[in-house]
Amino acid sequence: MDTTHSSTLRRTSTTASNRLRSDQDQPQIDATKRAPAADERALVLGGGGSTGNAWLIGVISGLFDAGLGVTEADLIIGTSAGSTAAAQITSATPPELLAAILAAAPQQRTDPVKPGGGRVPKAPAANQMERTNAIIAAAEDATDMRRRMGTAALEMDSDASGQTGWRATVAARLPSRHWPQQTVLITAVDAHTGEPVVFDRHSGVDLVDAVAASCASGFAYSIGGSRYIDGGYRRNENADLAAGYERVLVLSPFGGRSRTPLDWGMQLAAQVDELRAGGSRVETIFPDNNSEHMFGANAMDLSLRLSAARAGYDQGRAVAERLAAFWR
């Protein structure tokens, strides 16, 4: 990245960080830099790992096949696995994306590259949950938690080959590597400062890098001179960034739950309250009782992607009629 590009990125990240902090003592802003029209719609895609991404694609495809095209939203907000889905649905049709999941051969997770070469066993999702739960328990508030998460990620930082490999993995998942003209916001957190960051097509950051940063839960992803971690450490859905939109549809693979204390206000219910207080109408879709076991500790189990996609598709078909009046 050249000096001008790096300087632009730092200015963009700093400005976004200062404006988009989620703590309750700082007011939310219109992250799209304009006042939404009264009838505009926002689609929010929350984090949820590999199974969460498959479920999101399934739900959106089920809605699409039932005649409800939610990909036509005026704003799409993507966090972690939801950032991948946001990039996917704005460059390919939902049926194409679902077909690719259903047709994929069973996959095995590859182990990360350790410094100096060779492979090291990847820690199970349960171990990652245990480490991050300890960080949350030790933190004083959301700001402190994000700083601690960033520090831990920097300590586990991978070498250049690991960064390159992760970027290639993310790029392979995206039908297009270019930002859509549609307004898409991708969330991340600055690993050095703990400040939330939101990327869009005006940020001077490649779409692949924005998604890779938003999905970086085990290490800090490099963009220019900065490092970023998972956007879910801001909030798992970040639905509050849709403030001002008349209708907001939230798809949350984790069912709106948060591992943080309720008084931090990071749970989806708090976000929905903020939106409704501002005049937005909000609807949510969560995994049903038959599929919720595929998320949480099982979120990175690639063998569950097909089942998660099918479950999501069935839910999308089932709720389309109920949501039709709300969305159209």
Q: If you had to describe this structure to a student in words, what would you say it looks like?
A:
This protein has 328 residues and is an alpha/beta fold. Helices cover 41% and strands 12% of the residues. It is built from ten helices and eight strands. Strands 1, 2, 3, 4, 5, 6, 7 and 8 form an eight-stranded mixed β-sheet that branches. It is globular and about 50 Å long. The N and C termini lie far apart (43 Å). The N terminus is likely disordered.
Number of helices: 10
Question: How far do the termini sit from each other?
Answer: 43 Å
Number of strands: 8
Shape: globular
**Which structural category do the helix and sheet elements fall into?**
alpha/beta
Supply Rg: 18 Å
- Strand content range: 5-15%
Average pLDDT metric: 85
Spell out the helices and strands N to C. HEHEHHHHHEEHEEEHEH
Low-confidence stretches: 1-32, 109-123
Query: Helical proportion?
Result: 40-55%
* Main beta sheet strand tally, sense and closure: 8 strands, mixed
At a glance:
The chain has 328 residues and is of the alpha/beta class. It contains ten helices and eight strands.
What is the secondary structure topology, with strand pairs?
Blueprint (H helix, E strand, L loop, with lengths): L2 H17 L21 E5 L3 H17 L9 E4 L2 H9 L4 H10 L21 H14 L3 H14 L4 H14 L9 E8 L5 E4 L7 H8 L6 E3 L2 E5 L16 E5 L16 H10 L3 E5 L19 H23 L1
Parallel strand pairs: 1-2, 1-7, 2-3, 7-8
Antiparallel strand pairs: 3-4, 3-6, 5-6
Note the main attributes of this structure:
328 residues; alpha/beta; eight-stranded mixed sheet; 10 helices; globular; disordered N terminus
